[in-house]
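Closing statement on the fe (ii) ion sub-project.
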Amino acid sequence: MAVARLGYIGISSQDPDAWNAFGSDLLGLMSVKGPGDGVYLKIDDHPYRIIVNKGAEDRLACMGWEVEDAAAYEHTIAALQAAGTPVEHGDDAGAVERSVSAYCSAADPAGNPLEIYHGRTNVGDAFESPQAVSRFLTGDMGLGHIVVPAPNTDETHAFYKDVLGFGDSDDLTLPPPAEGAPEMRVVFMHAANPRHHSLALFNLPNPTGIVHLMLEVPTIDEVGACLDRINRAGIPLLATLGRHCNDNMLSFYAISPGGIAVEYGCEGRQIDWQNFEATKTTVADVWGHEYQPVAV
Ligand SMILES: [Fe+2]
């Protein structure tokens, strides 16, 4: 039984208020009151999808992977334990904080913090964007996609594939980012939904524990309007507007307060996995996505 989708992410931030302003004023997310004193950002009918809590560092706190039901949840815990992965069961207060029926915490072989959950609760209230974003593409496809560092790429890839049931989408190799550095490699994987990838593993380390988070809107005009807001606010870009080869995403990458990159895009490819063969590629972009030198 495979992971169904990315359901939520937790972020640790030295300045949650700045994240709140970035999320609502620039990305068009809806800031809502949550069960704790963190920042809760809603993007659809789920109570919230991004939880930002104050912390000593700016980094990924957890990625919340959803499985379909209680049986799949128990099966997944058993699979993690059989693979020798320590699993910590979440308590009631933690389940309330996440608005889930039950969850547990673990780490992948690269040390990335992950949670498995089932039963999202408090679903149903409408999303209303403060920046007139019509909607985000979520539903069965979940929150979006996330890319995390995994210098032990092969071992981490095998964990997601063999233990959590992810499938391969694309294995991308790119030239070294600087002389003397290793080649870059990004392994793209899909969960049990049509989004081309819900997870990707990058072979170089990242101080924020997250290479980027992707949010998808329905139209290019909504991507452009967000880019205008980002540029007007003087927010640095990690990468300019461009289109990816593998998932066809037309997007740009903005750098949030604290340094986590957010990809904001549209037109992502949706796949019928019955008729798909995983690809191995060496070109990331059809056009654009010029990476900007950034001091993190
Ligand atoms: Fe991406």
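The two ends are 38 Å apart (CA to CA). With this model delivered, the sub-project is considered complete and its resources will be redirected to Aim 3.
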